[in-house]
Protein: HAUS augmin like complex subunit 4
Organism: Sus scrofa
Amino acid sequence: MASGDFCSPGEGMELLQQVCSKQLPPCHLREEDLLQNPHFSKLLLSLSQHMDECGLSLILAKEQTQAWKEVRLHKTKWLRFEILHRVIQELLVDYYVKIQDTNLTSEDKKFHETLEQRLLVTELTQLLGPRQETEVPSLLGLEKSDLLELMPPSEDCVWMRARLALEVEELLKKKCFTLLCYHNPDSDSDGETRKAEKVGKLAEVLMDEKQQCQDAKSQQKEQMVLLEKKSATYSQVLLRCLALLQRLLQEHRLKAQSELDRSNAQYLEIKCSTLILKLRIEELKILSDTYTAEKVEVHRLIRDRLEGAIHLQEQDMEKSRQVLNTYEVLGEEFDRLVKEYTQLKQATENKRWALQEFDKAYR
């Protein structure tokens, strides 16, 4: 590190790439986190010196490697015995089938009977288990010596073993050829020698393919870790961008909104004035089309005459108002005379009407 407990920006990124991507489990650490917590950066470097790529301590990783080696050895040994045991069982099953279909020779019967008897005694002997000092009574009270008495004669066992090796070899060869054809169908048309050569290389081919699969899985795991880191980085960048946009909106939105409102108001004002002018133009156009010069002159004459008549009426109304004012000065006596005059006028009109009707009757 550059200065004791502290790291520079370049060293922080290098620490993220070397330590956090291999020794430590996947974590969403950023370079800013390491720069803000320098002691944590030193702790990560110290831990990486005592851990392997899987996150285990070096001592535990060494013990684990040794344990896996022993497990593989025991597993290989067990698989050998298991394969041999299953092959022998298949031979016996084939023997039971052949008894029903074909006539076997005496040697074949002797071979399978000896093999079955030897296998049965061996399995029962294994069931009894090893002897112990404080042991419980054995199964059915049997001892290994009791079972060993049931073993076939030693000469038959030797003869059976010699033939068994050939039978097992032949059966295993068929299984290997079947596996080869399953793995590589093109090998079905090859000769036996060519198949044997391919079978000899089949283990290496399978190991190579297994290693390729493991490498692909490792690459996939690395890609997944890288994808998670990129996703976390992109998420943080997006959050920062959103925060920046929010701040910009809060700082500049009101100012921009006021300017926008002012511009909109000016635009609406100008548009309103334009519409008013258009309406006035249309109104004047209609008036100019409706009232020609002759019609305007006639209307002017009519207006002058109407104004003269109105003036005369106003003069008469003024005279009448003066007369009424004069009569109002006379008071109640004038009202009585007006009523009497009205009655006399009404009586006179009635008599005149009666006289006219009388004249009409004698004509």
Summary: The chain has a mean pLDDT of 77. Residues 59-129+141-183 form one domain. The longest helix spans residues 192-290. Residues 23 and 54 are 6 Å apart (CA to CA).
